[in-house]
């Protein structure tokens, strides 16, 4: 039986968050111990909490909502690329060094974020990001989905968010908050399904890799 690797972050009230985001809130509105028939919980959170998918509406007022993203870009053959040597940002040169780049449609970037930044509950502004130039380069490839192992694909504090805009405007789906700490580079089956919110700019998702022989 193939091994399934969960690469999602667990959503908790004290988890790692983008600095301006409110933490998830959980309120039990029915409780068996209080005499109710069921346990029932109300949840409130920012849709870009934890492992999540960005929709074009995140950056464009007339962009598509998360429910319109093609599922074919979120399920299929994916390549986990080893960028753990990168100190600041993923560059065009880094992407060009991937021998398999011409065969990749779903690209997941494993950086030092997975080992260091992602394991802290305090936000780290020095996380590895994807440069705008690298985003432009991806437009020339077959890549239609880009996943990163921190809460943003963008440099912290970037004006006008060029990396987001380049990717989303070209129809490349962005997945943020992947936990690739224990994942070896290579090809996997991949599945990342965001919640189907109508018209929203993003949604939390459960992402997994399936380790099996890939044709």
Give structural attributes.
mainly beta, two-stranded antiparallel ribbon, Glucose Oxidase, domain 1, globular
Describe the structure.
It is a single chain. With 215 residues, the protein is mainly beta. It has a single domain, classed as Glucose Oxidase, domain 1 (3-Layer(bba) Sandwich). Helix content is 9%, strand content 29%. The chain contains 3 helices and 12 strands. It has a 7-stranded mixed β-barrel with strand order 4-10-9-7-5-11-12. Helix 2 packs parallel to helix 3. The longest helix is centred in the last third of the chain and has 8 residues, at 162-169. The mean pLDDT is 96.
Which secondary structure elements does this structure contain, and how are they paired or packed?
Elements (H helix, E strand, L loop, with lengths): L2 E4 L18 E6 L9 E5 L7 E3 L20 E8 L6 E2 L1 H5 L9 E5 L18 E2 L1 H7 L6 E4 L13 H8 L3 E4 L9 E9 L7 E10 L4
Parallel strand pairs: 5-7, 6-8, 7-9, 9-10
Antiparallel strand pairs: 1-12, 2-3, 4-10, 4-12, 5-11, 11-12
Helix pairs in contact: 2-3
What fold name goes in the CATH topology slot? Glucose Oxidase, domain 1
**How is the main sheet built?**
7 strands, mixed, barrel
Give the uncertain stretches in residue-range form. none
Oligomer: single chain
Beta-strand segment tally? 12
Helix content bin: under 10%
H-E string: EEEEEEHEEHEHEEE
Output the strand order for the largest sheet: 4-10-9-7-5-11-12
Query: Can you tell me the overall shape?
Result: globular
**CATH uppermost class:** Alpha Beta
Work out the strand percent.
25-35%
Put simply, the count of helices is: 3
Question: Residue-averaged pLDDT, rounded?
Answer: 96
In angstroms, what separates the terminal alpha carbons? 17 Å
Q: Determine the CATH superfamily.
A: Putative cyclase
Helices and strands: which structural class? mainly beta
Our count of domains comes out at 1
- Gyration radius (Cα, Å) is 18 Å
The second-level CATH architecture is: 3-Layer(bba) Sandwich
């Amino acid at each position: 039986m193939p091994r399934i690797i969960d690469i999602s972050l667990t959503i908790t009230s004290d988890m790692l968050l983008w600095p301006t985001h409110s933490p998830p809130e959980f309120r039990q509105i029915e409780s068996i111990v209080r005499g109710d028939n069921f346990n029932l919980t109300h949840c409130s959170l920012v849709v870009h909490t934890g492992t999540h998918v960005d929709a074009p509406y995140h950056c464009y007022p007339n962009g598509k909502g998360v429910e319109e993203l093609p599922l074919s870009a979120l399920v299929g053959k994916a390549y986990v690329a080893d960028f753990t040597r990168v100190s600041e940002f993923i560059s065009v040169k880094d992407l060009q060094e991937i021998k398999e780049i011409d065969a990749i449609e779903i690209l997941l970037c494993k950086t030092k974020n997975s080992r260091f930044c992602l394991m802290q509950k305090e936000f780290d502004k020095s996380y590895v990001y994807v440069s705008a130039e690298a985003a432009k380069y991806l437009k020339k490839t077959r890549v239609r989905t880009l996943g990163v192992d921190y809460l943003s694909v963008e440099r912290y504090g970037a004006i006008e968010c060029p990396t987001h805009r380049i990717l989303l405007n070209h129809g490349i789906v962005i997945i943020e908050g992947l936990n690739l700490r224990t994942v070896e580079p290579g090809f996997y089956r991949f599945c990342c399904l965001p919640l189907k919110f109508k018209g929203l700019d993003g949604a939390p998702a459960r992402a997994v890799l399936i380790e099996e022989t890939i044709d």
